Amino acid sequence: MAYSQQQLEKITALARGYGATRLFLFGSALDNPETARDLDLACDGIPGWKLYELAARLEDELMLPFDLVPLSPPNRFTRLVEAKGRRLL
């Protein structure tokens, strides 16, 4: 599943609109975009249910499979995402 720069820009704009302060692309979509089955995204700055609202909006507007996880609270996994992921915001 390849993705376009326009799609990443749309994701970033929507995340910013929901209050995201940081947004990372990670996982197979970063390493091998042609063979990835989904986009793995991690963000910070979106509290509680707003994160789920963003996920629903992304699903409606982009019609791409994706996973969206919070970066807070920090843990071993989120530190790995920050170290190896591509920062979009």
Structure description:
- This protein is an alpha+beta fold and about 90 residues long.
- It has a single domain (about 5-85), classed as Beta Polymerase, domain 2 (2-Layer Sandwich).
- It has four helices and four strands, in the order H-E-H-E-H-E-H-E.
- A four-stranded mixed sheet has the order 3-2-1-4, sandwiched between helices.
- Helix 1 (about 5-15) runs antiparallel to helix 3.
- The longest helix is centred in the middle third of the chain and has 14 residues, at about 50-60.
- About 20% of the residues are buried.
Structure, briefly:
The chain has 89 residues and is of the alpha+beta class. 45% of the residues lie in helices and 20% in strands. Strands 3-2-1-4 form a 4-stranded mixed beta sheet, with helices on both faces.
Please report the number of helical segments.
4
Structural category: alpha+beta
**Residues in helix, %:** 40-55%
- The CATH superfamily is identified as Beta Polymerase, domain 2
CATH architecture: 2-Layer Sandwich
Report mean pLDDT, rounded to a whole number.
93
What's the story with the biggest beta sheet? Answer: 4 strands, mixed
Give the strand order of the largest sheet, numbering strands 1, 2, ... along the chain: 3-2-1-4
CATH class membership: Alpha Beta
- If you consult CATH, what is the topology? Beta Polymerase, domain 2
The best one-word shape is globular
Strand content: 15-25%
For the secondary structure, the number of strands is: 4
Order of helices and strands: HEHEHEHE
Kindly report how far apart the N and C termini lie: 22 Å
Poorly predicted regions: none
Question: Over all CA atoms, what is the radius of gyration?
Answer: 12 Å
Structurally, the number of domains stands at 1
